[in-house]
Amino acid sequence: MTTIRQRRVGRGTEASEDQPSDEKNVKPDGKILSGSTGGKLWNILSVTLGGIVAISLGLLTSVYVATLHENDLWFSNIKEVEREISFRTECGLYYSYYKQMIQAASINQGLHGLVYDNKTESVRTINILERMNIYQEVFLSILYRILPIQQYLEPVYFYIYTLFGLQAVYVIALYVTSWLLSGTWLSGLLAACWYITNRIDTTRVEFTIPLRENWALPFFAVQIAAITYLLRTHLQPVQERMTLVAVFIATFLFSLTWQFNQFMMLIQALALFILDCFDMLPTAKVTWLYIIQMSGLLLVCVLQFFNSMILGSLLISFNASVLIARKIQKNLKTGNLPNRIGKIILHVLLVLCLTLLINKFIKRILNLESDEHIFKFLKAKFGFGATRDFDANLYLCEEAFGLLPLNTFSRLSETLLFCIYIFVLFLMSVAAVIVAFRNLSGSNQVKFMEKSEESTITLKPDAAYNLIHTVLFGCLALSTMRMKYLWTSHMCVFASFGLCSTEVWKLILKCVHLYTSQRTHVIKYSIPIITLLYISYKFWPGIMDELSELREFYDPDTVELMNWIKSNTPNTAVFAGSMQLLAGVKLCTGRTLTNHPHYEDKNLRERTKQIYQIYAKRSPEDVYRILQSFGTDYVILEDSICYERRHSRGCRLRDLLDIANGHIMDGLGENDPDLKPSLFPRFCEEIKKNLPSYTMHFTRVFQNKTFHVYKLAKHK
């Protein structure tokens, strides 16, 4: 088991009260006052300084997480096998393809090995580029081969430094989004500081480096920044076109690097749909965003050799349904309040029905079942009936797919982030409800922001989008802990925007009858500065202590196992075991696997369930027959799974297998009445007794405190 031990050595930025318009600097005779030149010079200076601060914070964040990674593992000092073992579970699987491309005789041979791969799943040839999102590993490996850096930089460092470098892009994108919303780069500075001081809840890149989300989220943040800019009013046509290109590129890269992209963009599409229904976004821009989402995803589909899971995604069906429904309901945005509400209800029902019909049709045509485990999991998670499905329960029992723990909010509150976020969210939500009601009532007083000065309560399109975005992704994070990183990073943006927004403070001061322009300016800058000083005072010592704490990677049992496999088994040997361990076996030894952690394939899920019978109550003959059917030469048993204590009864892997097999679970506690005792003892326990019925099929060839390796007999 791997351990770490102590080392032994809101709002847009159009012209507002703090940004005087040029008209105030023009004389009646048409001559421009010198203040205009001074104002432009000040703006240029401010933008330059803000840009320098953004880049500096991004680079500092990269250095910070890289240093934490080095200090935690002593990565520069440990052996190559230990470095590779540190890439746990699916991280190791993804990195193995980068290593495979680097070690290939040529780039063409490396690509051929990925397209016709027969080592990831035994007795089966699969296309890795079609199955998994690993184009980033392919690109990096090619870049490493063609750049003259081999003598100065090891492949593993080129890889991890690229990921840490993307953290700079991530922080800069968050900074820019907050800056665009509030109109001051002080807001971006506060967002970046919150992201760093809440690192435990905003990123996990330093210990799960190759994870797909660490590649994808920086591009998602860039996309959000580009959308925020796109939704500003009074953009020039060339600015709008360039921004649309930026949105498309960011959407494409996000989709290319993460298999769950379609679900994240579906939530984004729902946000656009809600705002469009309430006239809070320009319809033309929303249409472009729908088209960009679809085109970006379809381009990825082509690059992934027409991956059927993408074609059958709900996002494609939903966006197509919205565009079709608009053509059917052409007068959706006319009429009085009751009329508009009725039309919206019909529109929602029409879009929902069309989405389900189109999605069902596509899946029926393609015979698509790759994502059925996700819907089984969601059905069970939200209480639509209990399930004995092994795959669904495997997700349900993992802490990462459970509800967001309450201690998350206490940690976020220590930096004042969550408290301020809730405050801003409440104000913006009230404003959104009022503006939506006014829009549906047919009032021309507030129609987008061109006429916003006439109304006390307004909401700009860019702020409205970020409001709904943070609400929907907040709901996702609350329901599934693993997705909190999509929410908490945007929480930093949204809270800092509200704290630095002229409109927010103007609204508050007007409500308490204390509004003056000067007072608004003082509060707008003084409160964020005080917050920054508080964060620096309270958390800077802790960050310094964290950077000075030195640990060392320590996992001798796994190292011993990998070294034994490399030294004592043929290169063509096929290994069976847990998904997590086998990913490391492939990376460290290059041996062929029976199963692996990339779970988005029905055949692999069924294969994994069969392989996992080594931890169930099955006869040695049954287990031997199953393993033989997948060409297995060696099977690795782990005591940490066989005698698992991490999960409670009912969620241990052996319990999930017992339930799926219709057997009574071990230990004290209730069982469903239709479960029956097994006729056989648990395989992983009984095989260690060396009984004749087991030794005739399995011979133990390796053992340490954690792992037991058995070689399968070759019966005719």
Automatic annotation (TrEMBL):
This is D19L3 mannosyltransferase. One of its GO terms (cellular component) is nuclear inner membrane. Residues 21-30 have a biased composition (Basic and acidic residues). CDD domains: Dpy19L3 (cd20181). It is a multi-pass membrane protein. Keywords: Glycosyltransferase, Membrane, Transferase, Transmembrane, Transmembrane helix. The chain crosses the membrane at residues 41-66, 215-231, 243-260, 266-284, 296-324, 344-362, 416-437, 463-481. Residues 1-31 are annotated as: Disordered. The keyword Signal does not apply. The lineage of its organism: Eukaryota, Metazoa, Chordata, Craniata, Vertebrata. Residues 1-10 have a biased composition (Basic residues). InterPro entries: Dpy-19/Dpy-19-like, Dpy19L3. It is found in: Membrane. The keyword Ligase does not apply. One of its GO terms (molecular function) is mannosyltransferase activity. Belongs to the dpy-19 family. It comes from the Eukaryota.
